[in-house]
Structures are given as structure tokens and as C-alpha cells.
Amino acid sequence: MSTYVIGHKIPDSDSVCSPIALAYLKNKLGEDTVAAVQGDINPETAFILGKFGVAAPEVKTSFAGESVYLVDHSDLAQSPDDLKEATVLGIVDHHKLGDVTTSEPLECWIRPVGCTGTIVKEMFDANGVEVPQDIAGLLLCAILSDTVIFKSPTCTPKDKEAVEALAKIAGVEDVVALGIEMFNVKSAVAGTSIRDLVMRDYKDFNMGGNKIGVGQLEVVDLAIFDDIKADLLKDLSVLKEEGARHSVLLLLTDIMKEGSELLIASDDASIIEKAFDGKSADSKMWLDGVLSRKKQVVPFLEKVFA
């Protein structure tokens, strides 16, 4: 029976591309593994897979009785609902250690880098396995996406070193141009429902017993949201009530201006204001220099909700 390699719920590019790469590596090392995703892939990821000719993994949400590797997460809220009925063989992640626990020892590769793809590249090197051209392209794009083309404060020299090496293998001469092409695809909102936009890159967190949802939309120009911002705010409130959440937040991130407008639906907006030491107006707040949900948003929220 195959072991599944899975990223988090509501998959982004890293949580799709890195499991594909890790499954390839594990197979080369003699393990029968297959990548899977916990939901539909987003437009950016579809672009990446198409560009390098790689098929999308199967969508699978139940893993009871299966063996799994968790990629790009270690939080139960982002894992399959029946994870406790599965066997976790390993975790490969670049976030804080979450609340997933196991009954037996497991393989762990957790590093403070900008992307899980960087860690998977390290795993290829450590095991002496060559990265094929298509897999190199996927990992390259995952790193460009997660580090916002090196602009994110989460980006490290190791991420840049990995991109340099992967670009040579993938035959990509201008990685910045590729990154901009990806973010232009990511910026497209025409024809997409408001709920799909809110959930495009969304995660739930347990913070001090409160369920907090944080989504992010990264674009090259915030003006594309001008006509739909009110609808986004309205849907955040609906989503908050649907899931009995304390707060649902949506970061509208302008990668060119290097900042984010935070949309807020909360039982107590003053807590959110305290987290970022500012004041909101009409359920909105500008966060200058904020590009990373992982490093610049979630830790500050966890601190005030603790």
C-alpha cells in the first residue's frame, strides 16, 4: 500500500509542489509513495504544473488507516480531519512546530527557511539524488511564491542558494521574470467568486482556545480589489459565523508596494489592533512592510490571544 505525501488544507503552491518532489525522492529511495492534495489547486499552482508538464496530484481528504508524510504544516487544523487514525511517518515543514503528535518516532525536517521546497532540495542533496528538470522547476516556483520573489522577511540565503541551483537544472534564465509571471496569474480575480478568493490561501489557527482564520491574496496592484473590497469584507463576516470563529482576517498584499491591507471581521477588533499596534477604520488597516503571514502576522496574533 502506498504512503501518501500531503500538504495542508486549501493548498498553495508549496503544499502541492513540495509533496510532488518529496514523493519522487522517497520513491527513488525505495519507498512506495504518492503525492496527494487536500483540495483543488489554485490558478498559480495550475500555471506552475502546466509550465513544467507535471500532472496535478489526486485530491484526497481521508487518510484513516494510511501512512502519511506531512508537508508544509504540522498543525491539526491544517491536517486531514481523520489524521489521528493515520500513521504519520514524517514531517517536512518551515513553520513553527504545531500540535500534531505521534505514538512512534518519525522523520522530521523542520527548518527556519522561506519555503518547504528549500528543505526538500536539501533532502535530495543529503541523499545524493539528482533533481530532475521538471521537479526542479516545481521547487523553484514554490520558493519564488513563498518568498514573494525574495522580498518576504522569511527569505533566507538558503532559499536563494536553492533557487540558483534549481534554476540551472530547470533551464530558467530569469527567475525574477518567472516570479512576476506567476504573480500576474495569482493577481487575476475576474470570474472568481468572492468566497473562492477569500479561501484561495486561507488557514485556520487555534489561538488560546479561539478559532482564528487568516487568508492572504498576493497581487501586483491592490487596485484590482477596489470594486470588490466591500464584498470581501461581507464574506469574511459570513465565514466567521459559519465556523464559530472569533476572527477572520484577509491580507491583501501588494508585492510591489511591499505592504498589506488587512480586512477584519472580529468579535473584538481591538484585539486585532493591539496585535499590530494600530487603529482600524471601516474594518480595514494598512500594515506597512507586511508580506508574510507566517512571520509578520500569526506570531503577533498568537501573542495577544494567548
Automatic annotation (TrEMBL):
The keyword Nucleotide-binding does not apply. SMART domains: DHHA2. Keywords: Hydrolase, Manganese, Metal-binding. Coiled coil: none annotated. Its EC number is 3.6.1.1. It catalyses: diphosphate + H2O = 2 phosphate + H(+). InterPro entries: DDH_dom, DHH_sf, DHHA2, DHHA2_dom_sf. Residues 179-305 form the DHHA2 domain. It holds the Pfam family DHHA2. Its cofactor is Mn(2+). This is inorganic diphosphatase. It comes from Desulfoluna limicola. The lineage of its organism: Bacteria, Pseudomonadati, Thermodesulfobacteriota, Desulfobacteria, Desulfobacterales.
